[in-house]
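Shipment paperwork, digital attachment
Item: protein structure file
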Amino acid sequence: MEIDAQSAQRPSENNLHRQNSFSVAHSESSMNFDYLHGLRSGTVPSTSTAASGPSDNGSNNSYGLVDDSRALDRTINTNERFVNILDQIDARVEKLRKDALNLQEMKDYLLMSMDLIKSNEMLQKMRESEREEVMLYIQRVSSRLGTVELNVRTVRDNSQEDSLSQINSLIDTMIKVGDPVIARQRCQLYLNACCTSAMDPSGHLDTLYEADVGPIDKKFESALLGCTLDDQKNIKKRLQALMGYLNKQTVSH
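Attachment content:
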């Protein structure tokens, strides 16, 4: 009875895969508070008590592991020891926020994609039975996406909340127009409004005139100026992505 060489090797490969998977899972779940041991009263600073930091596993995705060796490798006062460790935690909090913001942006793009599909001209021309089937599929995907809840809070006052709500309403209306040519024209007006104010390399606000960027939508510009700087940047990125899509739709027509 002949045995295929590849089949004979497969169990060992599977075992190796399981071992690697266990190793990765163990590494990712090894968050602990060992780095706080150096904050106990009477602790003698020593590098041997340092917790494993990101350099040990080669991963930058660990948010709970903090290397306190810098805080313990020499005799320092208690205040400096706290500050050193908190500086590292603060850096990881900032990375966590950025990663969460990227996920929120991805979710927003998926939501916009489904809105664009629902307003697509080809969908409207399909037979009713086929269109209903597609709409049911969209509803199922939307429901699954709705199970993903991300909330990175941007500090806004009431006026800024109202301004952002106006912007979202204007963009949603533009997406649901149905005519890619009209939607593209409106999107260009909105995008031009985003370009009338730009930050120069020195960090100063540089105002561009309408003649330099083309016609703008005054209502959109007014609402945009009432948004936070972070919101303004995100709005511009959304519009640029939409413009890329609408340009392709216009060319196909």
